[in-house]
């Protein structure tokens, strides 16, 4: 399988549940990202990992907890979410190399609904 | 404060005509701009980019124009095709912070026969 994959594609959870989103990239990239896309709002960067180290946390509430066990995998652990957290969560990766174009490759996203 | 703005939420164009999608930005430190295209149920895919040292970049049917003095860029698609129907996102970054892209809200383009 190639590119950036995300599972699950759809998730419905209650406010007291704990769930995790998974992202995997097969591109040999060094950087991975979590974005949130809410209706009628810009795509919001949540977290950036470069070489498995978190380099950016964009003021995201602690109920979102990222994990990057290796350069190919990225998780977003969710607990005690709010209905307003319902959105499309997109994972992306990029080469993060000065020798390559600085473009990000996105997964298909996980559509999250919090009841 | 939204640093990258796409003021037209939607655009409808006839097949074969030119589509022009606009994007404005407020941060004068942005020096690299990208356009992404997004189909339903898929993630955004990179389309074309431009560095601030240029004012035009062309790739096949797609051309991006940058007007730094106006802090404005546009994406031209000519000729437009029905397969171009998608949401188009403008994004920008500051060169010293290559990891962080700031996205606009997107413009939905519909190309009809």
Describe the protein's architecture and organization.
The complex is a heterodimer of chains A (115) and B (113). Chain A has 115 residues and is mostly beta strands. Chain A has no helices and eleven strands. In chain A, 33% of the residues are buried. The model of chain A has no long low-confidence stretch (mean pLDDT 89). Chain B is mostly beta strands and 113 residues long. The mean pLDDT of chain B is 93. The interface between A and B is medium-sized, with 28 and 25 residues.
What is this structure, in a nutshell?
Chain A is mainly β and 115 residues long.
Structural class computed from helices and strand pairing of chain B: mainly beta
Largest sheet of chain A: 7 strands, mixed
State mean pLDDT of chain B (0 to 100 scale).
93
Could you tell me the strand content of chain A as a percent range?
over 45%
Secondary-structure element sequence of chain A? EEEEEEEEEEE
How far from one another are the termini of chain A? Answer: 33 Å
Tally of DSSP β-strands of chain B: 11
Query: How many alpha or pi helices of chain A?
Result: 0
Q: Outline of chain B, from the CA principal axes?
A: globular
Helix/strand-derived category of chain A reads mainly beta
- Which stretches of chain B are low in confidence, meaning pLDDT under 50 for 5 or more residues running? none
For the structure shown, list the relevant keywords.
heterodimer; A: 115 residues; mainly beta; seven-stranded mixed β-sheet; four-stranded antiparallel β-sheet; 11 strands; 56% strand; B: 113 residues; six-stranded mixed β-sheet; five-stranded antiparallel β-sheet; 0% helix
